[in-house]
From TrEMBL:
Protein name: ParA family protein
Chain intervals for the UniProt region annotation (Disordered): 46-92
SUPFAM superfamilies for this protein: P-loop containing nucleoside triphosphate hydrolases
Pfam families with a match to the protein in the record: AAA_31
Ranges for domain AAA: 1-184
InterPro entries: AAA_dom (IPR025669), DNA_Partitioning_ATPase (IPR050678), P-loop_NTPase (IPR027417)
């Protein structure tokens, strides 16, 4: 099982969108996947076509890791049902550990190591996934650190804007401190530049800045600003299933990014 956190210090840069894009690519590539929705907003849960509150949320499992397993609590994404209708012979597994306000309880800066291990413990009982994608909240507080503790790698998300570039550098430093403090082999699986507009000189400038700062860690291809992205998310569809050239192009980008990310993570 490969576990990867999708994080950033800043909100609104596209963590949930990148998580969902990667989940769509995983479905397309036939990889059995669990999305852990750690953000109390539960946007990933909604985006995956699951009504929050229809199964035990991840927050409840974190509070009582011994009561029930993640494999039982996880809910099937409506994307998987749609995928099976498209390709009836290939079983598709894409589940979500539902987000809820309950996780907010752990979003504190003062969690003890015992508490930081809670998500690792919950995931350690799972037997059915090749890939776990953790959608983190927009802070580097308790929940994100809990996610990092449970992960093999972290992918940071940045927008080509001044504040996001600065925030990504701070996140990178926080990751280094985390590795040092807890002596974990957690790897940085790159920075995804999201919402890139080709026609914007400012975006070109900030992308060049990201390249200078992070070198090879800036993952390619970059994710373009996709005109109907909000419509796709609003309809709770996988980008792979959405018609039109723009969605097809973005789906290809996520297919490539998922391959790159998985190739740099250990295989079990
Ligand atoms: N590549 C993209 N193209 C167009 N809109 C995007 C893209 N990525 C994100 N968005 C939009 O930006 C907003 C914030 O994205 P979101 O994924 O919710 O960020 P976060 O999870 O970091 O808070 C959402 O309305 C989303 O639809
Ligand atoms: Mg989000």
């Amino acid at each position: 099982m490969q576990v990867v956190s999708i994080s950033s210090l800043k909100g609104g840069v596209g963590k949930t969108s990148v998580t969902l894009g990667l989940a769509s690519a995983a479905l397309n590539q036939g990889i059995s996947t669990l999305v852990v929705d750690l953000d109390p907003h539960a946007d990933a849960t909604t985006g995956l076509g699951v009504e929050p509150g229809t199964s035990r949320p991840i927050g409840e499992l974190l509070r009582n890791p011994r009561k029930g397993s993640i494999d039982e609590a996880a809910t099937r994404s409506s994307w998987a049902l749609r995928q099976e209708r498209r390709q009836p012979r290939t079983p598709a597994r894409l589940d979500v550990a539902q987000g809820s306000a309950l996780t907010g309880y752990f979003d504190r800066p003062d969690l003890r190591v015992r508490d930081l291990r809670r998500l690792s413990r919950v995931l350690s009982t799972s037997r059915q996934y090749e890939l776990v994608l953790i959608d983190c909240p927009p802070s580097l507080s308790g929940l994100t650190r809990m996610a990092w503790f449970a992960s093999h790698g972290v992918t940071l998300v940045a927008e080509p804007s001044l504040f996001s570039v600065a925030g990504t550098e701070r996140s990178m430093r926080a990751l280094e401190l985390f590795r040092r403090d807890f002596d974990t082999p957690l790897s940085t699986v790159g920075v995804v530049a999201n919402r890139y507009r080709e026609t914007s000189p400012e975006h070109a400038f900030r992308l060049a800045e990201l390249r200078t700062m992070f070198g090879d860690q800036l993952l390619t291809p970059v994710v373009p600003e996709t005109p109907n992205w909000q419509q796709i998310q609003g309809a709770a569809h996988a980008v792979n299933h959405w018609p039109g050239d723009a969605a097809t192009e973005t789906a290809k980008v996520f297919d490539g990014l998922l391959r790159t990310i998985r190739a740099s993570l250990p295989t079990n």
